Amino acid sequence: MSENIINRAVEILRQNDLGDYTVPTHGLYPFQWNWDSCLTALGQSQFDEGRAWREIETLFAHQWDDGMVPHIIFHKEDDGYFPGPEIWATGRPVPTSGITQPPVAGFSVARLAARAKNKALAEEKARLLLPKIQAWHEWFYRCRDPEGTGLVAIIHPWESGRDNSIDWDEAFKRVPTEGVLPFVRRDTQHANPDHRPTQAQYERYVWLVQRFRSLGWDNDKLHDASPFQLVDPGFNGILLRSCNDLADLAEQLGENAIAAASRARVESGVAALEQLWDEGLGQYRCFDRVAGAAVDSASVAGLLAAFAPIPQPRKAAIARRISELANRTRYLVPSHDPADPRFDGLRYWRGPIWLIVNFMIADGLRQGGLSDLAEQIDQSSLDLIGKAGFAEYYDPMTAEPCGGATFTWTAAMVIEILVGLGMEQK
Ligand code: DGY
Predict the structure, then answer these.
(1) What is the pTM for the complete model shown?
(2) What confidence category does residue 424 fall into, taking pLDDT thresholds of 50, 70 and 90?
(3) Catalytic residue among 163, 288, 337, 416
(4) Distances in whole angstroms, Cα of residue 64 to Cα of each of 32, 91, 96, 235, 375
(5) Which of the four CATH numbers 3.30.70.890, 1.50.10.10, 1.10.468.10, 2.60.40.10 does domain 2-420 have?
(6) 97 phi/psi in degrees, rounded to 5
(7) Which of 4, 90, 340, 403 has its CA 20 to 30 A from that of 388?
(8) Which residue's CA is the closest to the ligand 1 atom numbered 4?
(9) Ligand 1 within 6 A of 54 CB?
């Protein structure tokens, strides 16, 4: 049974493989996405290590001079996606978007290197990628934490990957729509509109893009110019985990300066994350830097921070919180608490389960010695696959498959989970 699932997952990775990069799914997302690729490489590495390294190398070949790694690389034309390269107008030789995405590369590269069968290849590739990932991390702290708080902000919901999370609702009231040029959405032609962000949200997404474009995509200006500056504990948790794992890798490769700088980031970042802890809820919450206030929303971002090297008591509290959620949903881990009236089990990041999030939370819990719950989360992920196939996301009550189908990173995570459980492909 699990062998069949792995074979099907490998087939999906191959179907979506365009040679040097993998599309998340054909139609809905026809280009290379940043964190999709880094997590996809984990699945690819289980059957083709060379291909996995190439996935991440291709992404970093499009790193900006200032260190940023964009969230989309528009390798070739495809008018089936909005907003395409002409809307971003970033002026890159190969067009890219002008914002970034959760920096999972440090974690992925360290993991690929640690378990590589081809050690020589892994060392060669890791040595090449190490300074590039370090430059990206430093870019975050320079451009997205200008006051040196230890935590970075996102300036567009697309950067979090959790586009329409309830976390952004209040802050989005500040983002205007005047001056937004007329546009035609393509996402709703590929996926059920009830599973996607609303038109009102899209107008604000586009307003932010137009605003940043008008500033020439100058990252020295964008943070302060954005009416949307949100400190996301999940995003920061991913960055801190990547800094931590990059430090380990750098030490192994004798790159002591990178190791020391990364360790210092982890230390100050983990300490700063404490400001986002909500003792009553037993999880972290987002912080709105413009409003100067915590966001009133118990989203999965506050649980995803378990992926970071946070103190064990924090992981244990997050585990209790997830067990509480398990009483309210059939499957784990919903992207929002169903007790909140704003929860919507079908609409993208307002309730549905995402397997990449499950994977990262389970991994972080395991590192904190909370293996039972980690196994329960893995089992939920496998149950969803068994019931509904390799969807983009799932309704946590019914397992209804939502968004795009035959989804790359869902397949990659299933391979990771099953191989982690010791059921390797024969
Ligand atoms: C989309 O187009 O839905 C993406 O999430 C933006 O990256």
Answers:
(1) 0.98
(2) very low
(3) 163
(4) 15, 11, 10, 20, 39
(5) 1.50.10.10
(6) -70, 180
(7) 340
(8) 158
(9) no
